């Protein structure tokens, strides 16, 4: 147990509240399988002492984990990893295609977006190639900050075939939800994930110091017919976002 707690590193200098950092650290450990269903968490007093935070901070983090179904409370016995954590863990492997809105909702967060750009434009050449479009073909372009419980967790650049989204302002929240409703669901995607350091513009958008490690993903989404219609570039904060992949032999 001490080894697991030793992996939790809290930053007392950042603007992110300590209880949110602690909640995120436990959530990542649970999703990574470091805690199993039925495991009992240390008491609030022990957690506060080991992690050098107040019991109020610990209690707020545990309250949030309980609300989101990651832990359950047993009167007089403490906090235990909930069976629901296994379901959440199983639902969020890299092999399951879903949008960020769906993922955040499934994890118990309230997702929202701050739209930065919604227009129609000619995209970069590499986007045209990925989408199989002719030169100078316009597409719908969307840029937004993604929030979970009002905290910025990612920035998206979406390029969508113009016939699927002729009016970009029509999209309010979930891109995949909108396309599902229009009868043109994304059924398959190829996604490339890499590590980068935050540039000055990204650090400002994500509210992190310049040079902070980020995850960058590039996703190409396809219709059932095999036609590529979506290219999404996402820059994610590593303290608020994680991937899990199951590998079999």
From TrEMBL:
CDD domains assigned: WHTH_GntR
Pfam family, one: UTRA
GO biological process, alphabetically ordered: negative regulation of DNA-templated transcription
InterPro entries for the chain: Bact_HTH_transcr_reg, Chorismate_lyase_/UTRA_dom_sf, Tscrpt_reg_HTH_GntR, UTRA, WH-like_DNA-bd_sf, WH_DNA-bd_sf
Keyword annotations: DNA-binding, Transcription, Transcription regulation
Top-level taxon: Bacteria
Domain HTH gntR-type: 16-84
MF (Gene Ontology): DNA binding; DNA-binding transcription factor activity
Protein's recorded name: Transcriptional regulators
Species the sequence originates in: Zymobacter palmae
